[in-house]
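From the thread on structure requests for the teaching lab: each student submitted one protein with a one-line request. Submission from student K.M.:

"Model FAD-dependent tricarballylate dehydrogenase TcuA from Phaeospirillum tilakii, tokens only."
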Amino acid sequence: MALRRGRAAVLVAGGGIAALCAAIAARRAGAAVTLLDAAPPDLRGGNTRHSRNLRLCHDAPSPLFPDRYPAADFAADLATAAGAGGDPALAALLVERSAELPVWLAGQGVVFQTRAQGGLPWSRKTAFFLGGGRAMINSLYRTALGLGVRIHHQCAVTALDPGGGVWLAGPGGPARLSAGAVVVASGGYQANPSRLAEGWGDLAGRLVVRGTPYADGAPLAALFGLGAAASGQPGAGHLVAVDGRLAAPDGGIVTRVDGLALGLVVDAAGRRPVEETSITGPTRYARWGQVVAACPGATAWAVWDAAARGRLPPAVLSPETAPSLDALGHALAIPAGTLGRAMGECGRVATPPFFYVPIRPGITFTSHGVRVDRQARVVDAAGRPLDALFAAGMVMAPSLLGTGYLAGAALTIAAVFGRIAGEQAARQG
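Reply posted by the TA:
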């Protein structure tokens, strides 16, 4: 579809669930909508492609959920995750509107997996997409196109003007478009090492980008340049321990390393940074990400013995193998005596052969964004809305999560505030 230079009623920057919900909602509200996505068509969907569920409150069991997850429970979980960093008014709105999402998303073609179909973990808090995030994204794109949303891939928003001007870099070269309203739903800047370095220092260059490589943060920087108030903080984000052999961007959920409590984790000098069995439960991935990031060179090794090997969860790549402690020490460039002492400390790794995986910190998203109000309008430090500018998704999620993390909440924030931003932008555009 050729890019029309000129004016659109609503421009949406982004290509994931937040952008698509905004575009669909604005179009259903009667606005002409253009969506600008930096990714090529085969990589559309942002980090959402690697997702599988979203967190929703509900007062009774259903085909999607066992048990119930009342609004008060969701609100309490959100408050715990966000600490002092979340906006209570936005949190209350998120919880309330989350209950509408199964029906609304189904109306946009999204199919959820039911418990009767099997294969789901027990979860009263989240609903799972049939076919995962990629299938959900494909459904939303089909609906958006069917409604007449004009979608342009490989069009990266590089700057914003006050009052609805958008500068972009696309296949036809630089261009400027104008709109009655602009929705920024393009995520953070986790794929921009130079921008990361401003808050993360040298660690920025050692982080593995787990999601889309197109999250460079240019639209977010443009919002800050126009006076948007900040939420969250630089140098904060969601880290996960990932297989260091899978260091290319866009690896997603399958790159994370599990089963660390069954073995030994050592840094490059053979020291154990923590007691392995102290990190368990649903938050273990994120906690290990922080641990590995604090190791020298942001690198560690996971080691298991023959007894633990059969208990490890499935992984994309099998661990490397060493037939003896001396061979393991050689492979890890750590003296065998140092490894032996570490094994003696943990008392669990003893029987050869040994199995090992290099670990690095993988970054999912940055926890630094803009503040918005209940209409998803971007606001300045005094709480005044910036003219014609709205935001949804991870670009504003720190307004609710601060620097915290709550499983499934990011997609809920994206869908709820994407829908709100689209509806409100249509009224202004």
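TA comment: The two ends are 22 Å apart (CA to CA). DSSP finds 13 helices and 16 strands in the chain.
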